[in-house]
Amino acid sequence: MAKQEDTFKKVISHAKEYGYIFGSSEIYDGLSAVYDYGQNGAELKKNIREYWWKSMVQMHQNIVGLDASIFMHPTTWKASGHVDAFNDPLIDNKDSKKRYRADVLIEDYAEKILQKAQKEIKKAAKRFGDAFNEDEFKATNPRVLKYLADHKAILSRMGSSLEKEDLADVKLLIEELGIADPDTGSKNWTDVRQFNLMFGTKLGASAETATDLFLRPETAQGIFVNFLNVQKTGRMKIPFGIAQTGKAFRNEIVARQFIFRMREFEQMEMQFFVRPGEEIKYYEYWKKTRLKWHLSLGLGDENYRFHDHDKLAHYANAAADIEFNFPFGFKELEGIHSRTDFDLKAHEEFSGKKLQYFDHELNKNYTPYVVETSVGLDRMFLAVFSKSLQEETLEDGSSRTVLKLPAVLAPVKAAILPLVKKDGLPELAQQIIGNLKWNFNVAYDEKDAVGRRYRRQDANGTPFCITVDHDSLKDQTVTIRDRDTMKQERVSINSLERILEERTSFKSWLAKL
């Protein structure tokens, strides 16, 4: 646990030092759980968003994009169930006066049990080597069986209690498990109560005539209320999807773990409309497709896992999370949900407008079912950044800090380095930048010895360094250095654009999918 905390502190520190993330309004002592993306962070975030958009919208002929407003008619949130049901179970510790989400406390406890099981499995794998059969070991080892059974029983009971809104049993479960305040160790808890997460605001020139509104807590409803607009104007045939990215706002009880849980965040969501009865087929399709997208970034297959929901949202008949191994353990990165026809039917009822699709093949009207994929852009940023930050010991015994961002996402694709600040080398370097900047975000760096500049670019996440030396003036060649392998090769200046295209472009990476 201490190692995890140290790793996480390094991630937060590095993100600030290299211009990725700053605390919001820091000069005024900041604002809790609100962050600003710096010059490199804004680029990385944009690239993640674009990598998602291109794979989701441009690569699918039956998926289109949308950009709906943050403000929506207040009845929207009544129809969607957010006014009545968008709650988290809150619990306070009487001694520390700190507030927690009761379900997160229980989930964290259950995760520690699962980690114990994984520890036993790893020990056995090391002991038995190539002869180790993990499935057989999990099915027969008494200790692992108990850990897995306890883990399942705890989450199952919590899910059942929350579904029945039996908050007294949620508190009882916390007490039975002996869950303590993570900061103080106190077990003196209040009762569990529900807390609505929506931010309220006003629309209007005067207090007397102002309309009560909410900042949207999700982007999905903007898609649902525009279902017919998009379907008719785009002449879309089922199955088809509508995707969008944008800000959402939630008054989180405990916003913590850096940008993992914030009050202002960005979502990347896609709602896929299908025939009733075909939703589970597409639910399974999108589970596989979305995991494949994550794996394409090369952050390590072992850092992803599926978690099927025991407690389903009021609108769902199937739900799973893609969880990622963050510095603080496995947590939700993306949700895939079969939302049935709840949303369109609810908006039809509250608006009085017909929201159905006429299927020419079946010759009938029906309310489509929906399969949703929803990933937090900020969480995606944290997953990529935290897993990319590494400390390496080199062959000569020295060490380096390197941010091994996937090249397709890196804020700066290449740094152009003149060997010295004279003899025409800076001028040639600037010529190279002038040519490359049309297609790539490139940087110029002439300060310090070239070795120090390499280290600086390694820590900044720049995948390639291009060094201009005296031979470059004679034969129009440069040295290109790979951040991850540190290998150097001599290439012609004319080939730089092609090399960077092959190694960093969306096309070359998405083609793998």
Question: Would you mind describing this structure in some detail?
Answer:
Strands 3-9-10-16-13-12-11 form a seven-stranded mixed beta sheet. The mean pLDDT is 92. A hairpin with a 2-residue loop joins strand 12 and strand 13. The chain contains 18 helices and 23 strands. Helix 2 (39-58) packs across helix 13 and helix 5 packs antiparallel against helix 7. By secondary structure, the chain is an alpha+beta fold.
Strand arrangement within the widest β-sheet reads 3-9-10-16-13-12-11
Shape: globular
Give the percentage of residues in beta strands.
Answer: 15-25%
CATH architecture level-2 label of the domain at 1-73 and 244-393: 2-Layer Sandwich
N-end to C-end Cα span? 36 Å
How many E strands? 23
Class by SSE composition: alpha+beta
Helix count, per DSSP?
18
Report the helical percentage. 40-55%
The CATH class of the domain at 1-73 and 244-393: Alpha Beta
Low-pLDDT segments: none
CATH homologous superfamily name of the domain at 1-73 and 244-393? Answer: Bira Bifunctional Protein, Domain 2
Main β-sheet description: 7 strands, mixed
The value of Rg in angstroms is: 26 Å
Rounded mean pLDDT is: 92
CATH T-level fold name of the domain at 1-73 and 244-393: BirA Bifunctional Protein, domain 2
